[in-house]
Amino acid sequence: MSEKPPLAWKLQIRSPGVLPGFGPALGFTLLYLGLIVLIPLAGVFMKTAGMAWDDFLGKAFSPRALAAYRLSFGGALIAATINALAGVLVAWVLVRYRFPGKKVVEAAVDLPFALPTAVAGIALTAIYAPNGWIGSLLAPLGLKVAFTPLGVVVAMVFVGLPFVVRTVEPVLRDFETEVEEAAHSLGAGRGQIFWRVILPGILPAMLTGYALAFARALGEYGSVIFIAGNMPGVSEIAPLLIIIQLEQYDYAGATAIASVMLVAAFLLLILINSLQAWRRSRHEA
Amino acid sequence: MTRRKLIQGATAGILATVLLAGPALAADRTLLNVSYDPTRELYKEYNAAFIPHWKAESGEDLTIRMSHGGSGKQARSVIDGLGADVVTLALEADINAIAEATGKIPADWRGRLANNNAPYTSTIVFLVRDGNPKGIQDWPDLIKDGVEVITPNPKTSGGARWNFLAAWGWAAKTFKGDETKVSDYVSALFKHVPVLDTGARGSTITFVERGIGDVLLAWENEAFLALEELGPGKVEIVVPSVSIKAEPPVALVEGNAKTNGTEDVARAYLEYLYGTEGQTIAARHYYRPFKPELADPADLKRFPDLSLVTIDDFGGWKVAQPRFFGDGGVFDQIFQPGK
Amino acid sequence: MTSLNIFPQSPADIRPVLTDPPWARTLLTGMALAFLGLFLFLPLVAVFGEALAKGLGAYVSAIVEPDALAAVRLTLLAAAIAVPLNLVFGVAAAWAIAKFRFPGRGLLISLIELPFSVSPVISGLIYVLMFGAQGWLAPVTQSLGLQILFAVPGIVLATLFVTFPFVARELIPLMEEQGTDEEQAAMMLGASGWRILFWITLPNVRWGLLYGVLLCNARAMGEFGAVSVVSGHIRGLTNTMPLHVEILYNEYNFAAAFAVASLLAGLALVTLAAKSALEWRMGCHGASTH
Questions:
Q1: What is the predicted ipTM?
Q2: What angle do CA C59, C62, C67 make, to 5 degrees?
Q3: CA B328 to chain CA mean position, Å
Q4: A189, A76: one domain
Q5: What is the CATH number of the domain that holds A222?
Q6: Are residues A41 and A111 in the same domain?
């Protein structure tokens, strides 16, 4: 990257007095991004490009892989939905109510960001196994959590928990109470106000959080493998299948599944960014 | 806090970390043994015995590093460049894979040491809950209604492949080689498996600690170890009428040992496994020693007698591996989703 | 406000139309706390409970065991390399993206965030594909005699990848919000670019910066999936703390596994406490989400 940005870029820079350092900063950013993220990721697609098309389809969409995608995507969908509903509830309680220990709860919401996933995995397994604290309560009811697809969802809920809370909370806090008061004075009940006024207001934030939680749950590995039963076709997630293919020295198979997961990650990212753009445009409007 | 203080603090922190991280290794040479899951305790004791032996022999302070994991995963790491001087894995097939992919192990490695490179052998037994509440005595009992069987995934675990072949071996004897019946039995068996861990250790923990399943198919040494770790009164061992002679082989990774300059000590390390001390330690850790006469008779008494098939009954690993566990092989067919 | 109210609201909130009836508040709060209890507090309690199950002596000896200490050192080393690098990157990226407008800016932001949505397993796999014995960079590293995979460099690279976006993501919105007025004023007064960066821009965003560093550090020390793929699991050499937890767990040594896990959980708690303190300092700015 040269010190002088091309003319076309210069013209679009919004402020008249141009700050220094654009070239080096952008140059370093692109270089580092390329070295650490883009070139290594490109390796996955290079490897895939080297495969015959039928071979790729056979490996990326084998019945076992399809079952793994179903579990990963389905589990992430359910977990993100639970997190969306519970996240709005938690955000509501944290913003609107006061109760003893609120500060602790407020801080603890971010625990899944900070707690290593392997630690979360063994802890959740210890709790939800049939002889664990909660598992032993559920076992007499015939409900098995650990080592079933349900366990996968539990781990996914854990890792995705903070996303919706953290996106909805600031929106709810900034929510103009005058709107609610106006609605009230027009005779709307609490329920109506929530559905007609508040929910539409927090919906973009909720969807962003939903998509983030989904993306995180989709790729999650560390916490899930401890609690999932890892049965092919039943409780085997896609990232685990990548590992298993690797352990069978099937690099092509691992890469094929990885490339499908990567494309999904790209698409999700585009979705998340358009959601955020949508939020911003609504915010500014 | 000012910016300057912040930067100072951060720098001091990083420096301290880097200093802490600089390990001072006094040893002359380091040997890396890449092994599979259940051998952790065995090699812990064996290494502690070999280091003074080597010191007495050569005057050198040796450091031995261990890496444990599922046998397939470990072989994959060595293929990808993990600098193992010796591999002590669960399966001949995994060492074959390293030999084929890297050439760091000569193709004819098997037989360079005695007993097909297996200084100790083992077999597959059943571990059941105390008092054997489901009355499990032999293979047919595993597919009775309401019996849950725990085994790791044969795709990733060496032990699980021995489990699979032991079941197949019993069925082949019982059904006089009727392939359909044999395959039906093994399919039925895997329908009784609720959790398929990736390694033998994962399965043991699922069965013992998590309390899942009625019977664990396990390495004999792993079953004894679980018994020892938990104390009797929680689980007991059941010996089936037929099992398989499992030969976990060891091999020198010549390519790496040459690069690391450890060929002599690596060779000595493997050969010492066949000596009195190696065989005694193996037997103490519930591995059946290749030369029982060298081990402690008290340890040997613990091994039950049973009828064993061998891998040669399946045509050797070069035939069995692709047929049963290769892509689209027998195991994959059993595990067709929706079947 | 009725006297039955057990959850008093702040004075600003006391507006009749905005106040849910007490039963609703109790119910909703109860539900939220039950959810958090089930998914957050219980796992945390389980970690510490299991860690101390065999007494304090066993706890301490599990942590001062040489292999555990080696794992702690390696984890600190990986974080000590990855966090500063990603910090420098984050500042550079935020400077370019927040203070300037250029085509492809949106795409660049998306690419920076990419590692968040990539599965950790894939983050490890990419380095195996690059540096593995059959990898496309293997000839280069082999001729140079470099050991990347199954050694410290591989672990650092995987850590760099998974923690890549943390600082940048925290700084970009914050620096955008700050605008460029102060920087331009300083420039008119003749300040150099570095001077502006160190004396104006960074002090303005220092709490956000620290916040990003904290989260980056927590993730760097806690990463499991990516590091597991590239580590080789050599005891005392390439085992990080999360991997050591797994190893101990696989040795039936549950108390020790949870003891090391509790160190990591403790780190998480310290991170959260520091983060809360930062949020308080940042005041109404609040920390952005991610």
A1: 0.83
A2: 160
A3: 24
A4: yes
A5: 1.10.3720.10
A6: no
Min CA distance, B316 vs chain A (Å)? 19
- Report how far residue B101's alpha carbon sits from residue B95's, in angstroms, rounded to the nearest whole number: 10
Distance (Å) from the alpha carbon of B72 to chain A's nearest alpha carbon: 5
Q: Which two tokens stand for residue A224?
A: 């899930």
Nearest to B239 by CA among B307, B301, B192: B307
Considering the domain architecture, whether residues A45 and A56 belong to the same structural domain is answered as no
Q: Is A69 within 8 Å of chain B by CB?
A: no
Q: Work out how many domains chain A is built from and give that number.
A: 2
Q: Do A147 and B155 touch (CB under 8 A)?
A: no
Task: Closest CB to A248: pick one of B72, B194, B195.
Answer: B72
Q: In which domain, by residue range, is A151 found?
A: 52-284
Per-residue confidence of chain B (339 residues) as pLDDT tens digits?
455 555 555 555 544 444 444 443 444 799 999 999 889 899 999 999 999 999 999 999 999 999 998 888 899 899 988 999 999 999 999 999 999 988 999 999 999 999 999 999 999 999 999 999 999 999 999 999 999 999 998 887 888 999 999 999 999 999 998 989 999 999 999 999 988 887 888 888 888 878 889 999 999 999 998 888 776 788 999 999 999 999 999 999 999 999 999 999 999 999 999 999 999 999 999 999 999 999 999 999 999 988 999 999 999 998 999 999 987 889 988 876 544
- Bridge partners (DSSP) of residue B64 are B31
Residue A275 CA to residue A206 CA, distance in Å, equals: 10
Alpha helix locations (H) across chain A? 7-12, 22-33, 39-49, 53-60, 63-96, 102-108, 111-114, 117-128, 135-138, 149-174, 177-185, 190-193, 199-219, 222-227, 238-247, 251-284
0.95 cut: is pTM over it? no
Same domain, A81 and A60: yes
Q: A257 and A237, same structural domain?
A: yes
Residue A178 domain flag? yes
How many whole angstroms separate alpha carbon A280 and alpha carbon A261?
Answer: 28
Q: Kindly report the nearest CA distance between residue A117 and chain C, in angstroms.
A: 7
Nearest to residue B119, comparing CAs of B335, B255, B284, B273? B273
Q: Is C74 on the interface with B (CB under 8 A)?
A: yes
In a domain, A8, yes or no: no
* Domain match, A149 and A259 both: yes
Q: Are residues A203 and A239 in the same domain?
A: yes
